[in-house]
């Protein structure tokens, strides 16, 4: 569990999230972060994906992917990788 | 003709019998009625004799009916004769006289009061609105007058005991009309229907709604049923079992207007469903439905889609008629209207669904198996049908996947070739051999690359025999052997679920496969060139090789894309991104790029770091990853997290996913992208 970082959530409260992965897509000049707050839902876990964005003064934001085309590609990438894990 | 003297004799005999005290009251009443009648006949005969008409056929034939009311002045009677006339007329019962006047009024309406027919017996009962009225070609205006007259019989002398129940009579008359129309002879029906319906129009106005709904029951003529519901939509038309049978036997879209057909179908199905609800009718109804003419595909199709849950019916295309059915569609398709096409295909679809657990077109399977056995004409017919089915399904997103799964399995070369030719422009379609060729080309290419690598390692191993490196290369060779086995074992039939083959497909659709194929050709040409002795021939081969190289160059160039946001990156980075873009088709190629361009990524990472700032550091870490600086993706992720921990991170928005916890744990351990990175190592 080395990948736990503290973040400020939408209510400006400090919150721990566990980063699952960082990745890029060839088509977009963005860095993406896949993380979880370990919210279990039966056999599933809620995960989140955001654009990792710098806002200056050593500050970063996890931002929502609003471009639907980009979101689709990100989803495909995640699903592709998860499928690959599932087939192992 | 009767003999008046005989009548008189009978009358005398009956009078004698009447005087017999032993006769019962019933017999006496009957005798009295008969005597009254005979008396009337005798009186009328005497009047006729007085007028000199006793031998006139017009009178004799109708028993002198109404002769008592003839215009007596036309006969120039003497005063004595006139007295005799009045005496005779006075003997006629008043009831008879009233009836005469009513009949005369009716005949007046009809315009036949002066006709010899007026004396016809047919007029008897005219005042009671007898259904016999219909044999006169009344105008609607006349019918209206008769109806009014009948409704006011009291005003012309019929007392309450003899007054007609107009509503009852109208109802009976409608029933009479309906029964006469409800015949199997369609020619006769069509000849009389207009007139009968004009009568019904008037008569229906005189009866109430509830009565109306009891009239048109048990319709057995489907033309009549249709006309009734079109003409009187508010009236309940109920078909008898015979009617349903008749309709099932006779309904045929080819000789009916679509409107009539649809209406009849609606009526038929609602009647069937209603009757079928009663247990006692079930077997009969099932039998009737199964009696539908097998070639009446249109009706079968409609019944199957409109009827409720009716069991034991064989409306669907059966095994033994499937080919006939296909032939029928194929032979008549051009003449079908759009609505027909839908019907036949719905039937075909049902047949296909039933025959193949819902998702495998039997037609395609059948043709795949039998196509080579068919005559040229049959091939053409069947193929045209198949084209229709494929055209229909291939653009339907819900069906495309199923259809492609079928096409992938196509083994008949002729069939496959025809389909590929006709559907080459359709983006949705995929053929099995396309996948196979793509698969084969890429797998072979991967295997040959691995074998080439293996040969290199074997040479190095030989040179380093007995040292640490000898063992190292032996392990590498073993790894390659394992990888070759793995690649060879990939089953193309299971391509849908295989990530690797999905990528191979992508590569096929892109340019990689073409490049691989061209490279193969170049290798083959080089082999040929080595065997050639003539310079002229060698030059020709060089030209061919040059042509292929040119093609490869074009294909590679066409893959170059400049994505808008990459403008932010400095020039050297952009150049590298462009180079990277050439190989982004599948994981294997990409991994090679990472390895091949590791140095360039290092330069980029340094550049980002020199630019300073946290974000530059993040970018640099990604370039470090691509240059294989990290042992694993997990190590890379840890570095990223360390970087973020030293800064402030705020969640401004995220896209939420639900992932299986088991998979997530695997992701934690493996880290996404590790496959990609490892492959490049």
Question: What does it look like?
Answer:
The complex is a heterodimer of chains A (88) and B (681). Chain A has one helix at 68-87, and strands at 4-8, 14-25, 28-41, 44-56, 59-63. Chain A is α+β, with helices and mostly antiparallel strands and 88 residues long. Chain A has one domain. In chain A, strands 1-2-3-4-5 form a five-stranded antiparallel β-sheet. In chain A, strand 2 and strand 3 (28-41) form a beta hairpin. Chain A is globular, with a radius of gyration of 14 Å. The mean pLDDT of chain A is 79. Chain B is mainly alpha-helical and 681 residues long. Chain B folds into four domains: 4-169, no CATH class; 220-422; 432-557, no CATH class; 566-680, no CATH class. Helices cover 66% and strands 1% of the residues of chain B. The longest helix of chain B has 32 residues, at 432-463. Mean pLDDT of chain B is 70; it is low at 159-164, 356-360, 433-438, 491-510, 558-593 and 672-681. Classes of the chains: A alpha+beta (88), B mainly alpha (681). At the A-B interface, strand 1, strand 2, strand 3, strand 4 and strand 5 of A face helix 26, helix 29, helix 30, strand 1 and strand 2 of B. Strand 5 of chain A pairs parallel with strand 1 (648-651) of chain B, so a sheet runs across the interface.
What is the count of helical runs of chain A? 1
Task: Count up the domains of chain A.
Answer: 1
The N- to C-terminal Cα distance of chain A equals 22 Å
Quaternary status of these chains? heterodimer
């Amino acid at each position: 569990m080395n990948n736990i970082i503290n973040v400020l959530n939408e209510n400006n409260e400090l919150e721990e999230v566990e980063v699952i992965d960082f990745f890029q897509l060839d088509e977009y000049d963005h860095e993406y972060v896949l993380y979880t707050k370990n919210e279990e839902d039966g056999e599933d876990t809620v995960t989140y994906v955001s654009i990792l964005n710098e806002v200056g003064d050593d500050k970063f934001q996890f931002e929502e992917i609003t471009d639907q085309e980009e979101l689709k590609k990100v989803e495909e990438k995640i699903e592709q990788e998860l499928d690959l894990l599932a087939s192992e | 003709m009767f003999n008046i003297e005989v009548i008189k004799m009978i009358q005398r005999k009956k009078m004698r019998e009447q005087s017999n005290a032993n006769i019962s009251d019933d017999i006496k009443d009957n005798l009295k009625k008969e005597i009254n009648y005979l008396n009337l006949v005798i009186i009328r005969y005497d009047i006729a004799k007085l007028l000199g008409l006793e031998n006139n056929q017009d009178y004799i034939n109708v028993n002198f009916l109404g002769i008592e009311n003839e215009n007596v002045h036309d006969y120039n009677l003497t005063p004595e004769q006139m007295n005799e006339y009045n005496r005779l007329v006075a003997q006629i019962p008043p009831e008879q006289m009233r009836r005469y006047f009513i009949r005369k009024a009716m005949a007046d309406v009809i315009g036949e009061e002066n006709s010899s027919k007026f004396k016809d017996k047919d007029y008897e009962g005219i005042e009671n609105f007898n259904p016999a009225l219909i044999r006169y070609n009344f105008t609607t205006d006349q019918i209206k007058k008769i109806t009014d007259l009948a409704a006011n019989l009291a005003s012309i002398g019929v007392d309450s005991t003899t007054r007609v129940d107009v509503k009852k009579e109208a109802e009976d008359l409608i029933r009479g009309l309906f029964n006469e129309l409800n015949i199997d002879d369609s020619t006769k029906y069509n000849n009389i229907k207009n007139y009968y319906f004009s009568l019904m129009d008037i008569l229906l106005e005189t009866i109430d709604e509830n009565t109306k709904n009891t009239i048109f029951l048990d319709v057995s003529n489907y033309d009549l049923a249709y006309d009734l519901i079109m003409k009187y939509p508010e009236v309940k038309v109920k078909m008898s079992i015979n009617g349903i049978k008749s309709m099932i036997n006779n309904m045929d879209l080819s000789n009916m207007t679509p409107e009539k057909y649809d209406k009849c179908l609606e009526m038929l199905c609602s009647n069937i469903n209603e009757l079928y609800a009663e247990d006692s009718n079930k077997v009969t109804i099932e039998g009737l439905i199964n009696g539908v003419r097998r070639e009446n595909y249109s009706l079968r199709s409609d019944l199957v889609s409109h009827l409720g849950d009716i069991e034991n019916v064989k409306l669907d295309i059966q095994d033994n008629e499937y080919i006939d059915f296909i032939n029928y569609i194929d032979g008549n398709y051009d003449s079908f209207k759009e609505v027909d096409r839908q019907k036949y295909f719905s039937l075909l679809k049902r047949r296909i669904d039933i025959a193949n657990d819902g998702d495998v077109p039997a037609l395609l399977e059948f043709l795949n198996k039998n196509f080579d056995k068919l005559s040229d004409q049959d091939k053409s017919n069947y193929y045209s049908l198949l084209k229709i089915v494929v055209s229909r399904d291939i653009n339907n997103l819900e069906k495309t996947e199923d259809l492609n799964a079928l096409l992938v399995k196509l083994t008949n070369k002729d069939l496959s070739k025809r389909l590929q030719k006709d559907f080459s422009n359709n983006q949705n379609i995929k053929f099995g051999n396309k996948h196979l060729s793509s698969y084969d080309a890429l797998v072979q290419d991967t295997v040959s690359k691995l074998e080439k690598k293996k040969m290199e390692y074997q040479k190095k191993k030989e040179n380093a025999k007995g040292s640490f490196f000898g063992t190292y290369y032996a392990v590498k060779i073993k790894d390659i052997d394992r990888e070759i086995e793995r690649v060879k074992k990939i089953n193309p039939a299971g391509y849908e679920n295989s990530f690797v083959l999905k990528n191979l497909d992508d590569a096929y659709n892109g340019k990689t496969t073409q490049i691989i194929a061209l490279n193969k050709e170049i290798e083959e040409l080089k082999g040929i060139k080595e065997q050639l002795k003539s310079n002229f021939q060698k030059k020709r081969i060089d030209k061919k090789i040059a042509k292929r190289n040119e093609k490869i160059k074009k294909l590679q160039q066409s893959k170059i894309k400049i994505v808008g946001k990459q403008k932010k990156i400095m020039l050297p980075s952009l150049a590298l991104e462009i180079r990277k873009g050439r190989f982004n088709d599948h994981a294997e190629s990409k991994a090679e790029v990472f390895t091949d361009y590791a140095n360039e990524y290092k330069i980029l990472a340094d550049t980002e770091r020199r630019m300073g700032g946290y974000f530059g550091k993040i970018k640099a870490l990604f370039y470090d990853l691509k240059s294989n600086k990290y042992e694993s993706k997990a190590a890379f992720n840890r570095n990223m997290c360390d970087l973020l921990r030293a800064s402030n991170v705020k969640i401004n928005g995220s896209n939420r996913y639900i992932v299986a916890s088991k998979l997530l744990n695997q992701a934690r351990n493996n880290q996404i992208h590790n496959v990609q990175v490892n492959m490049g190592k």
